[in-house]
Amino acid sequence: MEPENQTQVSEFFLLGLSNKTELQPFLFGLFLSMYMVILTGNLLIILATISDSHLHTPMYFFLANFSSYDICFTSTIIPKMLVNIYTQDKTITYEGCLSQIYFFILFAELDIFLLSIMAYDRFVAICHPLHYRIIMNPQLCSLLVLASWIMSVLDSLLRDLLVLQLSFCTNLEIPHFFCEINQVIQLACSDTLLNNIEMYFATGLMGIIPLIGILFSYSQIVSSTLRISSGRGKCKVFSTCGSHLSVVSLFYGSGLGVYLSSASTQTSRAKAIASVMYTVITPMLNPFIYSLRNKEIKEAMKNLFGIITFNG
After folding, report:
1. Is 312 domain-assigned?
2. Do residues 120 and 210 make contact, with C-beta atoms less than 8 angstroms apart?
3. Do the domain assignments include residue 60?
4. What Cα–Cα distance (Å) separates residue 102 from each residue in 150, 153, 206, 250?
5. Could you give the CA distance from residue 257 to residue 183 in angstroms, rounded to a whole number?
6. Which residues contact 290 (CB under 8 A, 6 or more apart)?
7. Which of the four, 22, 129, 233, 272, has the lowest number of CB atoms within 10 Å?
8. Are strands 91-93 and 11-14 parallel, antiparallel or unpaired?
9. Mind spelling out the 3-state secondary structure of the chain?
């Protein structure tokens, strides 16, 4: 196949989840509904944590950031997907594809870093409760968030620049509903060695190391909890950590399931369908997981609705 220089590429074609015309209205309604739930649920958590002074703690500071990242994460891909379904136009511009890759990687990695930071926060709160306010001071919390931003911005920028150097063939069809970087790289006619090296390095640095940190934090939490004699105390610890563990399991379980599965066991279209789990369903479930199992969040939301009703 004759290579086509990347500067001549004007657009890619997103094949989406299904080619069946009769399914398009259903898919549009389904993803629009889920997107509205994501926006509403995460926005309520952000407003609740801001409006309630009792939630001005490191735990809820990180939770508000996590909710804002989820909004940005899904807004990177779902609106374009809805436009493509509604207009029956599968194209995305070359610049739009690069932008989507950049912001998708940026907010995905911010989510990963914040999950590990939240695990560390729970570790300090449970294993070192007397020193919690000293260790998790506002300066450290801000520094942790800033560090995660710097690393995520640099890595997503590096990946985007490496894709920018690629030349593409005449086949520009991406079997996905967004510009997933691995699928884009597979369309390249030029050498992708640097892209693959960076991808494996970034997976270890941005994915595996934070996961190890989360596992270590929770191993210490479990060890500390088992030494608690009170059954009520144990239940309180597991109730506090249960929401975060559920989100970690959903995010990592679905994400790793997609990216570690071999091509022989899953087609590209099947991987696209599986990707819905961590790109759409997990961000949609996160507000429910954190609010339904958290009395403070539920109380803050009641107060928030009371303020909204009063002002209305």
Report:
1. no
2. no
3. yes
4. 14, 9, 15, 23
5. 16
6. 45, 63, 243, 247, 297
7. 22
8. antiparallel
9. CCCECHHHCCEEEECCCCCCHHHHHHHHHHHHHHHHHHHHHHHHHHHHHHHCHHHCCHHHHHHHHHHHHHHHHHHCCHHHHHHHHHHCCCEEEHHHHHHHHHHHHHHHHHHHHHHHHHHHHHHHHHHCHHHHHHHCCHHHHHHHHHHHHHHHHHHHHHHHHHHHCCCECCCCEECCCCCCHHHHHHCECCCCHHHHHHHHHHHHHHHHHHHHHHHHHHHHHHHHHHCCCCHHHHHHHHHHHHHHHHHHHHHHHHHHHHHCCCCCCCCHHHHHHHHHHHHHHHHHHHHHHHHHCCHHHHHHHHHHHHHHHHHC
Task: Report pLDDT digits (tens) over 115-127.
Answer: 999 999 999 988 8
**Residue 1: inside a domain:** no
Domain membership of residue 103 (yes or no) is: yes
* Number of Cβ within a 10 Å radius of residue 193: 8
Residue of 12, 146, 152, 23 lying closest to 89 (CA atoms): 12
Residue 161 belongs to a domain with what CATH number? Answer: 1.20.1070.10
Range of the domain at 15: 6-305
Q: How many domains does the chain contain in total?
A: 1
In terms of pTM, does the model score above 0.70? Answer: yes
What are 116-170's pLDDT values in tens digits? 999 999 999 888 889 999 999 999 999 999 999 999 999 999 999 999 998 888 8
